[in-house]
């Protein structure tokens, strides 16, 4: 299908959202009518002659979260098809389609990713194909291919594959095409500046270094820079800042430094380097020696046309830093695709995070909207509305019924409906939903407060202090409970060089507390919350969290530093790296 045909198909689908949604739900229920999960709530679901409308479905099947599927998923992972001998009619636990593998969720707040079953569903493949190919067509519309400059520097990682007790592979959803030898789009990987041996490596630090090395070797041929999430490019730039001399030396010699000890990766990079490149090395070294990192990406890769990455949600905090590195090169936004299903597509990819809007895809899944009250930091009851009931300006938690075994499943994403594209809701991603009603700050509250805090820091302390990363946790063991915020700053020793700086930091901490959201302020004024605790961490503390997450199964390609930590053991890791607490 041509790009024009794809874009036309997407456009047409948004013109009658309600009809497509009704057809999508009907298709899912007819196809999955024999699954055990549905038959628990819809006893007649297995009857081929029975048509279940949306109202009956929503009335009979309760809202669900991952915990409602955990037992089924564990049985599938262990290779079980049923729970007892008399379950022959219910042998399909979640889907009638064959189970292929499992995908990991990001698992950022708990460091323990969830398993998302991936079934071989023809219907789902069709919906996903339109979403992913449509996204590629949108990108090509803005940036038509150039035969003469056709390489992409992509910071992607296939991640390690594990296996369940039942022998099913477990991987990141983004890794699936990389491990699939039959993938029809495998030829697309030929355009990458890094060889597959780098992408398939097992040490993320070495992989990132080799991505940079191969990208610099192909500096004049790089058309675009791709990274799944903004944090991935930020980390790559920190490696570039600290390792640029070594990178120049490696290009000059024609082989990577001895630290890169994966033989297959090393040999593949040697082939890309193509022998000693002293002239290129000198040219790149001169750029670095100027010590001007503003617009550095355009200086190193003069033909790059765009940088693509997700910069919405918790990634928004990195946008200004990316703009600094990118200079005049446009930052292009990503789509709203979840591990469970595709949700919405970004048709105006050049917009900054604050103005990024996603057009919902009516055939990707059946969607419902659970009203969310920001003032209460919670959903309003358990009554959902469909597209006909959404109101512009209101916030909702997204609920999905997918082709692959999730029914009225709460995605945990809070969105704001900002308008309509034809008849399709136009969404702004707001934040991840709070896990419980006891949470006293939202991701949005924390990010806004930290942005203000950094400005106050610079004004009060008279120096440009860069907060590299931050997170928070509520200490319920304190009486009353206390919000703890942990920050890692660049050149932390400079901040804490004397007591005067610590005193200034204390003043800034007060300003930070005043910037937190309404829920926090109300409880703080009532005396239900102890004064805020702010801890400065040793450099590299958040890298330790990344390593911990990877050890626990989180795919590096999907890792997002948690903004609200709910796992006490993770808080303990941070506490061990505290330099000073205010």
Please describe what this structure looks like.
The chain has 582 residues and is an alpha+beta fold. It has 20 helices and 20 strands. It has helices spanning 3-13, 17-31, 36-41, 54-60, 70-77, 122-142, 176-179, 196-199, 204-217, 230-253, 263-273, 278-289, 296-300, 319-326, 443-461, 492-495, 499-514, 518-525, 541-551, 568-575, and strands spanning 99-104, 115-119, 151-154, 162-163, 169-172, 222-229, 306-310, 331-332, 336-337, 342-345, 358-360, 366-373, 378-379, 395-401, 409-421, 424-432, 467-475, 482-489, 533-537, 578-581. α1 crosses α6, α9 (204-217) crosses α10 (230-253) and α9 packs parallel to α11. It is globular and about 75 Å long. The N and C termini lie far apart (60 Å). Residues 82-90 have low confidence and may be disordered. One of its GO terms (molecular function) is acid-amino acid ligase activity.
Properties at a glance:
eight-stranded antiparallel sheet; four-stranded mixed sheet; globular
- Determine the mean pLDDT: 88
Kindly name the structural category. alpha+beta
Helix content: 25-40%
- Main β-sheet, spatial strand arrangement: 9-10-11-16-15-14-12-13
- Largest sheet data: 8 strands, antiparallel
> What characteristic shape results from the CA principal axes?
globular
Tell me the number of helical segments per DSSP (H or I, 4 or more residues long). 20
Straight-line N-to-C gap: 60 Å
DSSP E strands, number? 20
What gyration radius follows from the Cα positions, in whole Å?
Answer: 25 Å
Low-confidence stretches: 82-90
Q: Quote the beta fraction.
A: 15-25%
């Amino acid at each position: 299908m041509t790009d024009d045909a794809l874009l036309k198909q997407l456009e047409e689908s948004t013109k009658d959202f309600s009809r497509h949604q009704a057809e999508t739900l009907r298709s899912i229920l007819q196809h999955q009518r024999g699954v055990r999960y549905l038959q628990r709530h819809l006893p007649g679901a297995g009857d081929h002659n029975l048509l279940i409308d949306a109202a009956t479905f929503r009335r009979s099947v309760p809202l669900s979260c991952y915990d409602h599927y955990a037992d089924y998923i564990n049985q599938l992972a262990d290779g079980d098809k049923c729970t007892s001998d008399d379950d022959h009619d219910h042998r399909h636990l979640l889907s009638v389609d064959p189970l292929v593998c499992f995908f990991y969720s990001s698992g950022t707040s708990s460091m323990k990713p969830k398993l998302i079953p991936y079934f071989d569903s023809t219907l789902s493949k069709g919906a996903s194909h339109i979403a992913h190919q449509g996204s590629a067509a949108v990108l090509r519309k803005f940036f038509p291919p150039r035969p003469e400059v056709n390489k992409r520097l992509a910071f992607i990682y296939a991640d390690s594959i594990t296996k369940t007790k039942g022998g099913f592979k477990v991987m990141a959803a983004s890794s699936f095409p990389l491990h699939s030898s039959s993938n029809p789009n495998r030829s697309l990987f030929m355009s990458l500046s890094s060889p597959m041996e780098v992408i398939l490596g097992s040490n993320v630090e070495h992989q990132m270094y080799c991505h940079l090395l191969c990208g610099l070797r192909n500096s004049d041929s790089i058309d675009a820079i791709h990274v799944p999430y903004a944090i991935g490019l930020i980390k790559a730039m920190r490696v570039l800042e600290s390792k640029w001399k070594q990178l120049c030396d490696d290009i000059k010699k024609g082989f990577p430094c001895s630290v890169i000890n994966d033989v297959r990766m090393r040999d593949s990079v040697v082939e890309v380097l193509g022998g000693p490149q002293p002239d290129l090395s000198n040219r790149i070294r001169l750029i670095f020696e100027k010590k001007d990192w503003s617009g550095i990406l355009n200086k190193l890769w003069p033909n790059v046309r765009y940088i693509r990455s997700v910069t919405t949600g918790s990634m928004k905090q990195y946008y200004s830093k990316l703009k600094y590195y990118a200079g005049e090169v446009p930052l292009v936004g990503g789509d709203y695709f979840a591990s469970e299903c595709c949700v919405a597509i970004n048709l105006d990819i050049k917009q900054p995070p604050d103005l990024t809007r996603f057009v919902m895809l009516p055939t990707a899944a059946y969607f419902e909207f659970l009203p969310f009250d920001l003032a209460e930091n919670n959903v309003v009851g358990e009554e959902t509305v469909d597209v006909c009931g959404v109101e512009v300006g209101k916030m909702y938690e997204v609920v999905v019924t997918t082709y692959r075994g999730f029914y009225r499943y709460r995605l945990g994403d809070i969105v704001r409906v900002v308008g309509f594209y034809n008849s399709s809701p136009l969404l702004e991603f707001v934040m991840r939903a709070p896990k419980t009603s006891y949470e006293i700050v939202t991701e949005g509250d924390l990010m806004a407060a930290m942005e203000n805090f950094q400005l106050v820091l610079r004004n009060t302390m008279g120096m440009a202090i860069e907060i590299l990363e931050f997170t928070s946790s509520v200490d319920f063991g304190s009486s009353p409970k206390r919000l703890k915020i942990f920050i890692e700053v660049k050149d932390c020793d400079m901040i804490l060089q004397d007591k005067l700086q610590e005193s200034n930091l204390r003043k800034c901490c007060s300003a930070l507390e005043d910037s937190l959201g309404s829920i926090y302020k109300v409880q703080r004024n009532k005396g239900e919350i102890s004064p805020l605790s702010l801890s400065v961490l040793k450099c590299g503390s958040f890298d330790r969290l990344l390593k911990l997450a990877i050890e626990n199964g989180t795919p590096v390609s999907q890792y997002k530093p948690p903004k609200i930590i709910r796992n006490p053991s993770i808080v303990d890791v941070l506490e061990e790296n505290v330099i000073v607490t205010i």
